[in-house]
Amino acid sequence: MSKIDTKNRILDAAEVLFAERGFADTSLRLITGEADVNLASVNYHFGSKKELIQAVLDRYLSLFMPELDAKLVSLMEQDELTLLQVFESFVGPLMKLVAVRHNGPAIFMQLLGRGYIDSQGHLRRFITGHYGAVLQRITLAISKANPELTPADLFWRLHFTLGTVVFTMASADALRDIAQADFGQRLDVEALVRNVIPYLAAGVGAPVESTRLSLAV
């Protein structure tokens, strides 16, 4: 078995286990057992569990982020921008993650969600360190589309947005089955994502005054 094959087997096993169980509850021994490799192979290719976690995410981020950035750069050249346009720019890059794995979009969002749930501070530092410019462009695009949002507003609304998307993608199969059984809708993953975008745009674009008043009470 080549070194590349071994490395990919570790990544393939780790990403599924991380998505299903979380980072904290997935041991290296569990990963090596699933990948059928020894612990020395993980240490050789990645050095530590933290670095393995980062490598798992970066298989998706290295494809997703440049694609998204190109779309955001194009959007920012417009005189006016809507939140719907901003969120729609995520769809194409997200769907291209099937190149990593057939259910790559869902796994990617689950992994991002796990990063928040498991409080993986090193993962946030890794993402901001490698893709900080793209994250900044996301913030600028949303702020241009809704200038009333303060940094605090933006933090909360993007947090709620991520939670909504992670739940939707993690429940994709069940939601599609329900939609077909109850409403006769046959949705692929892209159609499911496009269904949630107007909801996200409306939430991030909701009037902020009532929220600030309630926080002040």
Automatic annotation (TrEMBL):
One of its GO terms (molecular function) is transcription cis-regulatory region binding. Transmembrane segments: none annotated. Keywords: DNA-binding. Residues 4-64 form the HTH tetR-type domain. The keyword DNA-binding applies. It comes from Aeromonas molluscorum 848. This is PsrA protein. Residues 27-46 bind DNA. InterPro entries: DNA-bd_HTH_TetR-type_CS (IPR023772), Homeodomain-like_sf (IPR009057), HTH-type_TetR-like_transc_reg (IPR050109), HTH_TetR (IPR001647), PsrA_TetR_C (IPR041586), Tet_transcr_reg_TetR-rel_C_sf (IPR036271). It comes from the Bacteria. Gene3D superfamilies: Tetracycline Repressor, domain 2. Pfam families: TetR_C_30, TetR_N. PANTHER family: HTH-TYPE TRANSCRIPTIONAL REGULATOR RUTR, TRANSCRIPTIONAL REGULATORY PROTEIN.
